[in-house]
Design brief:
Length: 420
């Protein structure tokens, strides 16, 4: 059973000031989870979590994570600007992008961020645009299928990211000649994995590559980035990953492959979903009932507030606040207002009887929730709220208004008034 981190009474209190829908985040849950991650990897000197900004690009969330030692993983010019304004610089920023425009490399170099190159052709491109830094990372794509314990986890050969093994060796050779003194290696081979063995298998792929390259070229690898991929249990019946078991698997691979060769890079991660998803929720109010061929509950949120169910058919658990202990003896489609039949938060979901006015808590929206929002149908993105450990709360992003929607049109006379 999934339990919301706020009560109906608290949700109603907040909704009286900031109308639904809104995304809300649990500060204590976020910081406790980050501390647990650092404790798990404490065996590795210099371990660093680079939170994936794309998962939850809110400055207050980034500052909160910074306060417990996290850096940031950025993938665009705007994310780099946000990182800068939040006080991140230098080794606190990992810049992992693909098909990167010149101005993004320029800004990354200005911030002294650690650049993670996605392709061998980016070496001359970066050199011309901003120069080659003394420290650099390379993104590795080993190709083929990636499996763990005979389970196919993904197909790197179909992914647009990273360098082949041959390109990886050639890139190191080129960059060594360009004066690079410190190398890092990065790979992302599977998304939202459940089970504790993914990171160990990924680590073995990366550690073996580092060992081979070091032997071939005598270069120094000072860090290895396991990226993301550690998942969360969106469904109540799914098991939760154990970050301590995961870390022990990585440690085992480290001690078997790298330590005997005297290679001791620091471990980095770029977790987004694991860091934030369970500690965010979308609060929305039931505003309509519809009784046709199926039973529908219409809410004031839509896919503009949470795209994952419409885009992937993703499951997000729903709690009807105040009815947590009532029997789930009704079957509903919970839907939003977009002119798309995919705008559904739940399909044929067993829930308690829902009445107009009830508040629904949609779980696990702390990552890739608000951040994937959009303005189709002229729908406006919601507010974001941070719930403090003492039960107080504060607005960390206001809801959009029509003025925001029309902001790029204010050069037209009929929309000029929205810029005032």
């Amino acid at each position: 059973m999934k339990v919301p981190f706020l009560t109906k009474e608290k949700a109603e209190e907040i909704a009286a000031k900031y109308p639904t829908p809104f995304h809300i985040y649990d500060e204590k849950g976020i910081t406790d989870n980050a501390k647990k991650l650092y404790a798990a990897f404490s065996w590795n000197s210099g371990f660093k979590e680079y939170f994936a900004v794309k998962a939850t690009p809110n400055p207050e969330i980034l500052k909160l994570l910074k306060s417990v030692g996290c850096g940031v993983d950025c993938s665009s010019y705007t994310e780099l600007l946000m990182a800068k304004e939040c006080g991140f610089s230098g080794d606190e920023i990992m810049f992992s992008s693909n098909e990167t425009p010149e101005e993004e490399f320029v800004l990354a170099r200005k911030l002294n961020a650690v650049i993670n190159l996605d392709d061998i052709t980016h070496i001359p491109f970066l050199k011309k645009a901003a120069g080659i830094p003394k420290k650099i990372s390379l993104r590795y794509n080993p190709g083929g299928e990636f499996s763990v314990n005979n389970r196919i986890m993904g197909n790197p050969a179909d992914a647009k990211y990273g360098l082949t093994k041959a390109q990886l060796f050639e890139a190191v050779k080129i960059l060594k000649k360009e004066g690079v003194e410190e190398f890092g290696l990065h790979a992302f081979l599977a998304s939202n994995t459940l089970g504790n063995d993914y990171y160990e298998e990924l680590a073995r792929v990366l550690f073996n590559a580092i060992a081979s390259i070091t032997e071939e070229y005598g270069v120094k690898f000072t860090f290895v980035n396991l990226s993301g991929g550690v998942g969360v249990p969106y469904r109540p019946e799914q098991p939760e990953n154990d970050i301590f078991v995961i870390s022990e698997g990585v440690k085992k691979a480290y001690e078997e492959i790298l330590a005997p060769k005297g290679i001791k890079p620091r471990i980095c991660t770029e977790l987004g979903r694991y860091m934030l998803a369970p500690y965010g929720g979308l609060v929305t109010r039931a505003i309509h009932e519809k009784h046709i061929y199926k039973e529908y509950i219409g809410v004031d949120a839509c896919s503009a507030n949470l795209m994952r169910p419409a885009m992937y058919g993703a499951y997000h658990h729903i709690t009807v606040l105040g009815k947590e202990n009532e029997p789930c003896d009704h079957t509903y489609d919970v839907v939003g207002s977009l002119c798309e039949n995919s705008d559904k938060f739940a399909v044929d979901r067993a829930l308690p009887k829902i009445n107009t006015g009830d508040l629904l808590f949609i779980h696990d929206t702390g990552a890739h929730g608000f951040s994937m929002g959009y303005n189709y149908n002229g729908r406006l993105r919601s507010a974001e709220i941070l719930l403090k450990p003492d039960g107080t709360y504060r607005l960390i992003r206001r809801a959009e208004t029509p003025s925001d929607y029309f902001a790029t049109l204010t050069f037209l006379p009929e929309f000029e008034k929205y810029g005032k």
